[in-house]
From TrEMBL:
Keywords: Cytoplasm, Transferase. Residues 29-259 form the Sulfotransferase domain. This is Sulfotransferase. SUPFAM superfamilies: P-loop containing nucleoside triphosphate hydrolases (SSF52540). Coiled coil: none annotated. One of its GO terms (cellular component) is cytoplasm. Pfam families: Sulfotransfer_1. It comes from Vombatus ursinus (Common wombat). Gene3D superfamilies: P-loop containing nucleotide triphosphate hydrolases (3.40.50.300). It comes from the Eukaryota. It is found in: Cytoplasm. InterPro entries: P-loop_NTPase, Sulfotransferase_dom. Belongs to the sulfotransferase 1 family.
């Protein structure tokens, strides 16, 4: 059986070993890449995209668990290869492949909520390193010492890339107001309502094809923290002390200097 989530070292190892094929990678015309920094709304976007592609057909969206409907290209190379995506052998994990994808959706979430979400995810994930205390994690996140590296470089890099490539740049905070945002698209009003309803946090939390309830405890221990945790904007206020917030804001100003990218930390 295929491992659900290979060890990170295995991912790096296979990246190195498959470098020749990676360089030759070419996406098909209808390929769509959903890209995010971890904990920014990947799962949510996956479900919305699938619902749109299936024209709001809930049953079709139940065909399998979400991580198999949209493989994680940086981790699920076994699945991709086995499924016969012929050109796609292994993709690099450092987001240099956007130039090859005809369609890209990038989702960004404010750093404070992202940090909180990532902290709880790492607490329950049994394959990522222990996050340590909240105080330790706070420092590590600011210093980019988390898997996938600095949040700051990720969001700034993609913000810049959107000027050169076809990238739909979305914000988690805006998606919370999605029901209004989506009006005016050419989707049928009834289908749209269904998509909004089915992709609400509450609905998705109960959906076994999404909530990772089938993932063994040895990989995700959801008794520590659920995969579908809170789904709100501003939970950082329940975690950051006043001193931490001040420290974070000063550091943030320096790291984000010179970019026009701005985030809403509350809605
Ligand atoms: P929290 O930990 O703050 O609750 P990803 O899918 O990239 O791992 O992102 C996970 C975050 O998105 C989690 O945040 C999760 O609860 C939130 N999320 C997932 N589905 C959502 C939805 N339908 N609405 C709002 N937030 C959602």
């Amino acid at each position: 059986p295929l491992p659900y989530w290979p060890e990170f070292s295995e991912v790096l190892f296979t990246t190195v070993n498959n470098w020749d094929q990676i360089q030759k990678f070419k996406a098909k015309d209808d390929d769509l890449l959903i890209c995010t920094y971890p904990k920014s709304g990947t799962t949510w976007t996956q479900e919305i995209v699938d619902m749109i592609e299936q024209n709001g057909d809930v049953e079709k969206c139940q065909r399998s668990v979400i991580h198999l409907r949209h493989p994680f290209i940086e981790c699920d190379w076994h699945i991709i290869v086995t499924d016969g995506y012929d050109n796609l052998c292994k993709i690099n994990i450092f987001s240099i492949y956007y130039t090859h994808f005809p369609k890209i959706i990038y989702v960004a979430r404010n750093a404070k909520d992202c940090m909180v979400s990532y902290y709880h995810f790492q607490r329950m994930s049994q394959t990522l390193p222990e996050p340590g205390t909240w105080e330790e994690y706070f420092e590590n996140f600011m210093n980019g010492k988390v898997s996938c590296g600095p949040w700051y470089d990720h969001v700034k890099g993609w913000w810049k890339a959107k000027d050169k490539h076809q990238i739909l740049f979305l914000f988690y905070e805006d998606m919370k107001e999605v029901s209004e945002e989506l009006r005016g698209t050419n989707l049928d009003e009834m289908i749209l309502d269904k998509i909004v309803q089915e992709t609400s946090f509450e609905k998705m939390k109960e959906n076994p094809m999404i909530n990772r309830s089938t993932v063994p405890k040895t990989i995700m221990d959801q008794s520590i923290s659920p995969f579908m945790r809170k789904g709100i904007v501003g939970d950082w206020k329940n975690h950051f002390t006043v001193a931490q917030n001040e420290k974070f804001n000063n550091d943030y100003k320096k790291k984000m200097e010179g970019t026009s990218l701005t985030f809403r930390m509350e809605i």
